[in-house]
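HUMAN:
Just now I want nothing more than another pair of eyes on a protein record. I would be glad if you read both lines and explained how they fit together. I have put the entry right below:
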Amino acid sequence: MNIREALKGQYHASMAMLKQVIESCPDALWGGGNHPAPFWRVVYHTLFFTHLYLQPNEKAFRPWERHWDQAQFLGPLPWPPHDKPKTGEPHTKAQMLAYWGFCDAMIDGAVDRMDLDDPECGFPWYRLPKLDHQINNIRHIQHHAALLSGRLRLACGMDIPWVGSNLL
């Protein structure tokens, strides 16, 4: 199998699982709950960094049209340098599904254009080769999809089915 096709399949499968958690989240859990990072913010964080890391480098990134600074962060970290996340009205499920569609639609073209042999990923806070960074990005999507799936299970008794790249 071609590595690009494998990356695309894993990206789309991870994104499909993220879409399931977005669609399944009850309104009461979307903007609140007992978590320091509300459901919507974890979704936004995941989509923002998926979008960012599908770019060739930091300079090529153009934020989503509904982006606001600092909303993509879950808490203060030294990399990329940022402060506390910005709070305010949550993005709606419809907005996050639109952003999800935007990100999912860019996967194939972005992966096709990548120099997967580049020893640098294009983001100075990550010291990874481009291919490793893409695998890391897929793991990030899946990590947060699983975290949100766990929240749904605990709060509502809801299970999110597994999506394998061969099931798309």
Q: What stands out?
A: The radius of gyration is 16 Å. The chain has five helices and no strands. The chain has one domain: 3-72+92-167. The domain at 3-72+92-167 is CATH 1.20.120 (Four Helix Bundle (Hemerythrin (Met), subunit A)).
